[in-house]
Amino acid sequence: MYTKIKLILISLLSVILISSASFARDLVITFDDMNPGPKAAFENAIAKFQKENPDINVIANNGDREEHKAAIRNFLIADAPDVTSWYPGNRMRPFVKAGLFEDVSDVWDENNFHEDLAAIKPTMTIGGRQWGVPYSYYQWGVYYRKDIFDKLGLFEPNTWVQFKYICETLKKNGIAPITIGTRYLWTAAGVFDYINLRTNGYKVHNDLTAGKIKYTDPRIRKTFEYWAELVNAGYFIENHASMAWQDAVVPFANGEAAMYVMGNFSVDAYKNAGLTYDQIDFFKFPEITKDMPRAEEAPADAFFIPTNAKNKRDAKKWLAFVARPDVQSEWNKTIGQLPINSKAKVADDKFITEGFETLNTAVGLAQFYDRDAIPEMAAAGMEGFQEFMMKPDRLDKILKRLDKIQSKVYK
Amino acid sequence: MGGVTPTHLKLSLIDWLLYLQQIALFDQKKRIYSENKLVFAPWYFLLPAIAFFLVYVIIPIFQSVWISFYEWDGLGEAQWVGLANYIELFDDEYFYTSLKNNCIWLILYLFAVPIGLFIALFLNQIVFGIRFYKSLFFFPFVISQVVVGLIFAWFYNPNFGLLAYIFLSLGLEPIAILSDEELVTYGIIFAGLWPQIAYCMILYLTGLSNVSKDLMEAARLDGAKGLKMLWYVVLPQLRPATFISVVVTVIGALRSFDMVAIMTEGGPYGSSNVLAYYMYETALSEYGFRLGYGSAIATVLFFIMLIYISYFLWRLYKNEREV
User: Fold this and answer.
1) Could you tell me if the ipTM is greater than 0.85?
2) Closest partner residue to B289 among A77, A241, A376, by Cβ?
3) What is the CATH number of domain B93-322?
4) Which of A70, A298, A324, B167 is deepest in the core (most CB within 10 A)?
């Protein structure tokens, strides 16, 4: 018995020794999505990369998203992987500023990414340099119950008036027009972003999140007035502050609510809640200010190289790999999102093709409030949005408070 | 960060070591040592505890106060801002909301003490199966605070919670307690009281088992009964239990972090925040990159606790002197 164990141990040891001799270079990649789709896509990509680069020993760590957010500050300093997933825009800014992310502009230069990944280039850029490579993005918009719309003779709205008419009709028929779960705040930011983009356009929205426009600015106040029209009329589902976004899918699935302002990742949740593709559909958030060029919300996910990484050469190989058209096509087909590389193929799915059309015809892409605004502002702003949705008459107080915070946290 | 360690602490430790070394070098070291054995011996045993207490409690307190004078995102260079964080703090609505909630916590949480006493008195009798009932009452203290928070969050849920069903069966519209800015803090405190009452109860139960039978008998002969008996004979003997219950409850109320984190994350829009959670939110959470500001909140909370605890320690000291 003992000799057997010894034998196994010795052979194991020799395997480790031999393999570490032939795979001299370890590449540690940290990823942050354990959901079945993204996990599979990540693992498939790793397998493909490993096959193409037998001389690199890839060590993949996949963890929970919230834990990843909490841990990244520590591991970037203390025990950095060679590659880590993270988000562009202002979510990467603190790390870029602190010199914890590697400048990867050379990867962009060598692989013609400036053209192929042009859609997301602005949000990957700080100070004229690129700091990471995106692998996926997705559209936001209004998901709705097509069967309910058909029954009540409603059509996809193009204008604010039509949208409000739909809400009113739904409400009269005892259906909550818009479902939302604001317990974790960020969903309210999605609604704010859209109403602001449609009221004031891309530039004003960008200036607001960049801290150049005050929240008490009449233009921003106008946004809240439009939003108040929905709130005061009771078009949002009741008790939204007690629900997470997943909880808010339940009334949508059982027909108590008919519309949901959400990102495309939610389609999976609708399907899991028992809805079929015939029952659900998508429309772009309707126009508010006439002829305002249409901008969209399209958060991207990306890979970054920490400055403290040990194997930067192979890390750059991985970045070049994940942005390749074939890799992005495959990856995004698995997770039901859109590839960023303009040469990649889009999956044959009605939400994906519609999302692709939506984003490609937009004049600008916002990343989402909590990525466009700096973290301290985002936290306070989203709390303000939730408060506004529950106590719309406090608007003045909320806006003044946001101004105060804005003046403190933007330097 | 290296400069934050208070140097006088370091120095005194080194001085002390030098002093020990001198003793060791001294010719008559053996005699001195054997003569002072009783003086040295306790320190050997205390040393590990003192060292860890210094490293993990005392020094971080000074560091935290020190950081509160900086603007720091935890990544880049810290920037000295003097008292700016404190000035901002006293102009911050969220801070006052948290402070107010902390006060509500302090007052209402103390109800755990009399209720715990009442239940302990009730359970302090010999009937069949009393151990079973005691363990039932003690149960909420055994389960983790996180679980208590989760259970109560479900209980309060306006869509599927038990409370909603009770309201509906009475023909009332369910109230979303945890998303109502007025009710939310009370809702969380109520959940927090559940295990805290159990804790106070167990403290009183042990106290009651030590109540002197002779005194009770003597009082009874003198005609004392009911409330009078409780107030003049039993309660004075329970003084240590009362003291510990109050201290534990006050500290529990001040650091009420876990329940808030689990049940509401400070929401809706910050209205159920308490100082401990607000500190976490600004310094360490997903959007928290303001370590200086968070440390300022921590410092304020620390001083509030310090005042309370020193008051109680002083009371204890005075009481003991009187006895």
Assistant:
1) no
2) A376
3) 1.10.3720.10
4) A298
